[in-house]
């Protein structure tokens, strides 16, 4: 009865699972601050994909950890970079997966910022776009289904869309990190990807968490520039932003339940402060707030253990 009248449902279809790939051989290493989340070398990536596929999870968001970093983040747009190599492998061997890729420079630059810097350490927006375009093309050529620019440079969606269309990749989609807040909830990810800025912070290009109207503006620009999916990130402290976005726009909406949110919850469960069912409660809250797509590190655990929706 309770199930019949429940207003919200969750299934494998709703989730996108983040996957970290790195150079090297025979590597499956746990991210220190993220229990059960691993970085894989390509020869072992199949283990992860098989597990996901058994759970019906066939949408992934790929993040690469390169062999080396430099000022221009050249491994991000190299055809032999880690993400293009992973894409070719997945597309050849696991054609059922829908693969989205993170388009950003921070994991690849030696300074850890999301763009190209000028002499005094400021990100140069327009020059950064050129590099983001190169990354986007390298991923599209290697078979990415959808590109996810996460840098928050102005005009990036339009720039990438035009470039993709010109180069014959009209069918490659864009999921824009349209409302991405400058947040302390990204800590564990930066450890996972080795992408913490070596100086300064990301406040000049990510959003101020005191603002909500600004998020609506950012969504609007990205939709006008051609985004197929818009996003709110992080999710939990931003459920109001998710709901407001849902009410104001009908573009498919994703929410990113980020690394710090995951790490807090896992730690609380491990310490016995909360039961595992908080995972389910959180995922339902994000869905109920209005996100159609949930990018979450909890996806596997949730699908393995889901039992009694609606509380017990
Ligand atoms: C940038 C990027 C970040 C995340 C996704 N893409 C880090 C950042 O902006 O600092 C964070 C995801 C998470 O915390 O789970 N490439």
Provide the descriptors you would attach to this structure in a database record.
312 residues, alpha/beta, TIM Barrel, eleven-stranded mixed beta sheet, two-stranded antiparallel sheet, 12 helices, 13 strands, 19% strand, binds ligand PBG
Condensed summary:
The chain has twelve helices and 13 strands. With 312 residues, it is α/β, with parallel strands linked by helices.
Task: Explain what the structure shows.
This protein is an alpha/beta fold and 312 residues long. The chain has a single domain (12-305), classed as TIM Barrel (Alpha-Beta Barrel), CATH 3.20.20.70. It has 12 helices and 13 strands. A hairpin with a 5-residue loop joins strand 6 and strand 7 (123-124). The longest helix is centred in the middle third of the chain and has 18 residues, at 125-142. The protein binds ligand PBG.
Overall radius of gyration: 19 Å
Q: Let me know the average pLDDT.
A: 93
Give the percentage of residues in beta strands. Answer: 15-25%
Task: Classify the secondary structure makeup into a structural class.
Answer: alpha/beta
Tally the structural domains: 1
Query: Which regions have little confidence, pLDDT < 50, spanning 5+ residues?
Result: none
Query: What compounds sit in this structure?
Result: ligand PBG
Instruction: Categorize the overall geometry.
Output: globular
Enumerate how many helices there are, as a single number: 12
Helix content: 25-40%
């Amino acid at each position: 009865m309770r199930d019949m009248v429940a207003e919200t449902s969750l299934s494998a279809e709703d989730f996108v699972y983040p996957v970290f790939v790195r150079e090297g051989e025979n590597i499956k290493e746990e991210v220190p601050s993220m229990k059960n989340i691993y970085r894989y070398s390509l020869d072992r990536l199949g283990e992860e994909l098989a597990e996901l596929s058994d759970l019906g999870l066939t949408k992934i968001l790929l993040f690469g950890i390169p062999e080396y970093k430099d000022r221009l983040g050249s491994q991000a747009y190299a055809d032999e970079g880690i993400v293009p190599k992973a894409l070719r492998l997945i597309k050849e061997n696991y054609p059922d997966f829908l693969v989205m890729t993170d388009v950003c420079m921070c994991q690849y630059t030696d300074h850890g910022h999301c763009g190209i810097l000028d002499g005094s350490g400021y990100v140069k927006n327009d020059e950064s776009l050129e590099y983001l375009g190169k990354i986007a093309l390298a991923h599209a050529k290697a078979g990415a289904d959808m590109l996810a620019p996460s840098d928050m440079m102005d005009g990036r969606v339009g720039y990438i869309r035009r470039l993709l269309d010109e180069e014959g990749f009209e069918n490659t989609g864009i999921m824009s990190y349209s409302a991405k807040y400058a947040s302390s909830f990204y800590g564990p990810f930066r450890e996972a990807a080795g992408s913490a800025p070596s100086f300064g912070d990301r406040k000049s290009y990510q959003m101020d968490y005191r603002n909500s109207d600004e998020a609506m503006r950012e969504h609007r620009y990205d939709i006008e520039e051609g985004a197929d999916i818009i996003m709110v990130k992080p999710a939990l402290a931003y459920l109001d932003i998710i709901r407001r976005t849902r009410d104001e726009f009908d573009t498919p909406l994703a929410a990113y339940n980020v690394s710090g949110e995951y790490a807090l919850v896992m730690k609380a469960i491990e310490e016995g402060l909360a039961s595992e069912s908080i995972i389910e409660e959180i995922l339902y809250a994000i869905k109920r707030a209005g996100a159609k797509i949930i990018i979450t590190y909890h996806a596997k655990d949730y699908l393995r253990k889901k039992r009694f929706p609606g509380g017990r």
